[in-house]
Structure formats: C-alpha cells, structure tokens
Specification:
With about 130 residues, the chain is mainly alpha-helical. The protein has two domains: about 30 residues; about 90 residues, no CATH class.
C-alpha cells in the first residue's frame, strides 16, 4: 500500500513538473505559481463540498418527505457525512497552506487575513 502511494506521489510530482515546464515555455508561468496552484486546490475542494452538501440535502429530503427506505438512506447519509468531514479537513489544510504562502510573500499578517477572507468569506448564519 505504501509503495503504491509513493508511486502515485511521484507521478503527480512529475506531472506538476511537466506542467510548470510547459507553462514556462508558453510564457504563462505566473498562472502556475505555488499560490495559484493552492488557490486551484481550494476552489476544487469548495466545488466538491458543494456537491456533497447538495447530495446531503437531497438525501435528507428523500428521508423526510418521500418516505423511502430509511435504512439505506441513513447509511448513505452516514457515509456522506464522513466524506464531508474529510473535505472540511482538506479545505482547512489548503487554506492554512494558502495563508502561509501569502504571509511569506507579504510579510504582513493583516494583509494575509484580508487576502484569505476573499477566498474563505465569513458566513452569517440565520437565526433558527
């Protein structure tokens, strides 16, 4: 299992290196700097989380309104909630890395927080 993961990591790193070389040859290396790559990862995680939340709301609707087979839906919901927890953890990890990269570039904590707030806006929750 560990050999397989290491092989996958090497492959991904090789693809990333080839992407950087091609971007440099095309003159668009600014679009593929570490900060932009991390921002792409954040966007991807957000899209995946949105899909998970939509699926969860569909399953909850089916459970509450449709009266389908509850046992199957509850199992699906439990699996989906574990995927959501993993996605939230990944989002936090990538957001932290993004924040670190910005802080290295700016050297100012306030500018970093301002830039990160654009990526991860604070949401106001409605009163229940």
């Amino acid at each position: 299992m560990n050999k397989k993961k290491n092989a996958q990591k090497r492959l991904v790193n090789e693809l990333k290196n080839q992407l950087m070389i091609q971007a440099e040859r095309l003159g668009i290396e600014d679009e593929y700097n570490p900060l932009c790559l991390e921002e792409m990862k954040l966007d991807s995680v957000k899209k995946i989380m949105t899909e998970f939340y939509m699926e969860r709301s569909n399953l909850e609707y089916e459970l509450n309104i449709m009266g389908s087979k509850k046992k199957e839906i509850l199992i699906k919901l439990e699996r989906l909630n574990s995927y959501i927890r993993k996605a939230v953890g990944l989002h936090a990890k990538h957001l932290s890395t993004f924040e670190t990269l910005i802080e290295k570039a700016t050297g100012d904590r306030k500018l970093t927080q301002k830039a990160v707030s654009r990526i991860n806006p604070v949401r106001v929750k409605a009163a229940a």
